[in-house]
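Structure request: DUF1761 domain-containing protein, Luteimonas granuli.
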Amino acid sequence: MDKRFWICGIVVGAAGLLFGFLVHGLLLRGEYQALAALYRSPEQANAQAAWIVPAYLLLGLAMTWLYRRMPASDGIDLARGARFGLAVALVSYVPGHMLAFVAQPLPLSLMLRQVALDLVAMVLLGMLLAWLQPHRRALAAPP
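Returned structure:
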């Protein structure tokens, strides 16, 4: 793994953390608070919060690794990145939320909002990866 891999992975992980905060910390916060009895207490949640950063770092590195396994494209192809993000969402977040809905007494409306918002976030992360071009070996052509 070269320097570009690590930079792209960390940037995508940081963006994923930001999207996660926007989706789950802001947009869905009220719905989660209304169902507080189903979740960890704030003290318990805060004690486990250190797992958030490595989880998003792993997401960024794994997405970068998978994206680099695809054949390189000519230049920036945002549509390709969007399709990649969609595929990653369909094998991770979407079934994860659906399975959590089966196991936990959450409202269908919450699960559908989680799926929709995380789907958008993953498509945007895929587009970010396409823009970062993790296949590219140098930032600029040598003089």
